[in-house]
Each structure stands twice: as structure tokens, then as C-alpha cells.
Design a protein that fits this description.
Length: 103
């Protein structure tokens, strides 16, 4: 069912344009309609950029993925911030000498 709703919402503008062409043969789209469409496009792009910037995480924060506990599902969230040094710290486990490690 959700796919049907998404398909209808996607095809609705094309269908409306086809209906408009059917009832207005040979008539061009007015310049005011094009201006309004461009304004709507600019507003939607600005809203997408604003939303992306407002929902972003601190670049130094650690992402904690979702987990299942006895109380339910804990959603993913940002954890404590890492060090702000010039180079990121990499926590690699040390290998024992017997597993191909160089002497």
C-alpha cells in the first residue's frame, strides 16, 4: 500500500499537466506559473539544506548504533566527543606475537 501512495504522489503532477494540456490546447504555460515553480523549487532546496545542517552531528562525536535491551529498542545517538587533535586516534587491538606479527 505505501508503494501505491508514493506512485500516485509521484505521478500526480504529470497527470495534472496532461489534464491542463487537454483542456487548453495550443496555449502556453504562463510566465507567472514558471516563476512560482522556480520559487517553490528554491524554497524546497533551501529547506532541505537547512534541515541537513540542523540535524547533523558534531564531526568529532562518536555514533552509537541502535541496540535492543530488555526495556525495548534504544535508538541510535551521538556519544561522547573524540579528541580534537590534528590526527584522529585509532584504537586498534594489539595482535599477539604468534599471529604473523613482525618481530
Amino acid at each position: 500500500m505505501p508503494y501505491l501512495v508514493e506512485t500516485v504522489l509521484f505521478l500526480a503532477p504529470f497527470a495534472l499537466y496532461a489534464v491542463w494540456l487537454r483542456f487548453n490546447p495550443g496555449r502556453a504555460v504562463g510566465s507567472h506559473v514558471l516563476v512560482l515553480a522556480l520559487i517553490g523549487l528554491a524554497i524546497s532546496m533551501a529547506g532541505a539544506v537547512w534541515y541537513g545542517l540542523s540535524r547533523s552531528m558534531d564531526p568529532y562525536a562518536t555514533y552509537v548504533p541502535p541496540s535492543v535491551t530488555e526495556g525495548g529498542i534504544v535508538p541510535g545517538h551521538s556519544g561522547e566527543a573524540r579528541s580534537h587533535g590534528a590526527w584522529p586516534t585509532i584504537n586498534t587491538p594489539s595482535r599477539p606475537r604468534g599471529e604473523g606479527a613482525a618481530p
